[in-house]
Amino acid sequence: MSEMLVQQNTAHPPLQNGHDYTLFGWRVHSDGQFPELAAWDGDPGHSPDVRICQGAAAPLEGAVHRFGPLLDFTDSTFRFVVPEIATYRLDGQRGEPSTITIAPAVGMTIDSPEVRLFFFGTVLAALCYRRGLIPLHASAIDINGRALLLSGPSGLGKSTLAATFYQHGYPLLSDDLCALDVSIPGSPTILPCLAYLKLWQDAARHLAIPTGPLEPVREGQNKFKVPVPSAARQRMALRQVVLLRRVAQPDDGGLFPLRGSTALRQYDLFHRPRLGIAMGYQADMLLALAAVAQHVPFAELRRQDDLSALPALVRLLLAP
């Protein structure tokens, strides 16, 4: 693990008038550097699907819907204000190229880690919904050519368990965030996003990963980005969806199947589900859950906060 996880991601070499990346199969052309993403290696003549520009993120006009005090949207636009970080504006309807305009706050740039952090949160969720994908709050592991999804609320150990799988020889697809494509009937697939793990310092220490050379997820936070250069990057069919849940007593732990309507109520699987519902994508989300549940087993993994139990959890999830 330490051999591959202590390396830092290197920034991609600048291209003329910007940088080109790949994200969920889209070509992304950006004014700033996003070292979390892989360089675009597709057709050089392919027009960008998404443009990320630095500029003025103008207020929205027309029939504006408000989602909390900092976020509003229309049928074709979306605007998100993060005080002291940046303002983000998304333009473009489904089937059209998308433009994301970022206006960094004073002291920030489009390349700042904090600016990128919020891009890979709420902004990317809105972009997925608008472009016909379902964003998932899940880590994905390649288990013999099929994706195991580890989902659940923040703080339940998705990344730590994913890192343990990696230590056992199973490639990382994506940590914390990926996308679901159900456009092909009978074949729901996962599209990876970020080829690094986000680990708290105590988890990294337990896994023998030095954090000294690593970039914190956010300034002053003891949570670090751990690059995984050999992460798998291709889309992949699903193997299983596992929802993590914390329990207090060892006797309450174990792996429990979720069937029928119970599987269809697992909205924690989605990334920013309340936003997706507010933007009018609840039907798409429910249909996506149904498509997955029809072909892939769902289960709930009930576990304690015990780092020493991680190898046993890997064996449990790998059992036939």
What would you note in describing this structure?
The chain is of the alpha+beta class. The protein has two domains: 103 residues, no CATH class; 183 residues, Rossmann fold, CATH 3.40.50. The strands form three sheets. A nine-stranded mixed beta sheet has the order 3-1-2-4-9-8-7-6-5, covered by helices on one side. Strands 10, 11, 12, 13, 14, 15, 18, 19 and 20 form a nine-stranded mixed beta sheet that branches. Strand 8 and strand 9 form a beta hairpin. The N terminus is likely disordered. This is Hpr(Ser) kinase/phosphatase. InterPro entries: P-loop_NTPase.
Q: Within the CATH hierarchy, at the fold level, what is the topology of the largest domain?
A: Rossmann fold
Give the helix tally. Answer: 7
* Total domain modules: 2
Strand percentage:
25-35%
**In whole angstroms, how far apart are the ends?**
26 Å
**Strand order across the biggest sheet?**
3-1-2-4-9-8-7-6-5
Please, what is the oligomeric state? single chain
Uncertain spans = 1-15
Order of helices and strands: HEEEEEEEEEHEEEHEEEEHEEEHHEH
What's the level 1 CATH class of the largest domain? Answer: Alpha Beta
Overall shape: it is: globular
| Average residue-wise pLDDT | 88
InterPro entries: P-loop_NTPase (IPR027417)
Protein name: Hpr(Ser) kinase/phosphatase
Organism: Insolitispirillum peregrinum
